[in-house]
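Q: How would the structure tokens look for this protein?
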Amino acid sequence: MNGTFFDIPEKRLKAKKDTLKNLISTNALRDNQFGFEKYKIFLNKSRLLNISVHIQSYGSPWEDTTYYFFDEINDTEVGEKLFVNKKVFLQICGKKLKTDKRISFQIKSINQYKIDTSKEGKITGINLIFHDEKNRTNSGYPEYSVYFTWKEIEKFITPQYRRRLIE
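A: Here is the predicted structure in token form.
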């Protein structure tokens, strides 16, 4: 944004809106590699927040979605710390990925996921998201998910987060 630091959200939004208007009026969106974001909240419960941020650059086919899980009590990003027995869990994810999607690429990380809930807010399962960084396309890295029901994955959730998730 063209301007100084804005301390309140309303001023930041107005500055972003003004910058966007200016770039559109001067036909300079592409030159400035302006990006658009889309946020989605999957879980907001017990001071735990699971969201996705989708970014697309104007004039480019490149798109990317990143998934985050935050612990607001400890002011941290949880990521892989949600899981125990990570080595075994990664192997199970790899097998499911090969079986369900007939895709075979090495997975190294389990820090991208979206938590599924029922209308009542009860956890029903988790989709783990993996990107095939080897087979990049013009529009980004192919994204694949592996779904686990809560019963399947509950034993891999660390006790501190399991308690807060089922509250």
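Residues 127 and 147 are 4 Å apart (CA to CA).

Residues 9-25 form the longest helix (17 residues).

Upvote if useful.
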